[in-house]
Amino acid sequence: MCVRRCVITVGDLGEFGVINRITERLPQVAAVMLGPGDDAAMISAPDGRVVVSTDLLLEGRHFRRDWSGGYDVGRKAAAQNLADVAAMGAVPTSIVVGLGMPADLPLTWLDALTDGFRDECAVVGAGVAGGDITRCDLVVIGVTALGDLGGRPPVLRSGARPGHVVAVAGRLGYAAAGWALLEAGAPVDSAVLQEVVAAHRRPCPPYAMGPEAAELGASAMLDVSDGLLQDLGHVAAASGVRVELDPRSFAVGEPVAVAAKELGADPLEWVLTGGEDHALAAVFPPEVRLPPSWQVVGRVVAGEGVLVRGREISRRGWDHFR
Amino acid sequence: MCVRRCVITVGDLGEFGVINRITERLPQVAAVMLGPGDDAAMISAPDGRVVVSTDLLLEGRHFRRDWSGGYDVGRKAAAQNLADVAAMGAVPTSIVVGLGMPADLPLTWLDALTDGFRDECAVVGAGVAGGDITRCDLVVIGVTALGDLGGRPPVLRSGARPGHVVAVAGRLGYAAAGWALLEAGAPVDSAVLQEVVAAHRRPCPPYAMGPEAAELGASAMLDVSDGLLQDLGHVAAASGVRVELDPRSFAVGEPVAVAAKELGADPLEWVLTGGEDHALAAVFPPEVRLPPSWQVVGRVVAGEGVLVRGREISRRGWDHFR
Question: What is the CATH architecture of B165-308?
Answer without folding.
Answer: Alpha-Beta Complex (3.90)
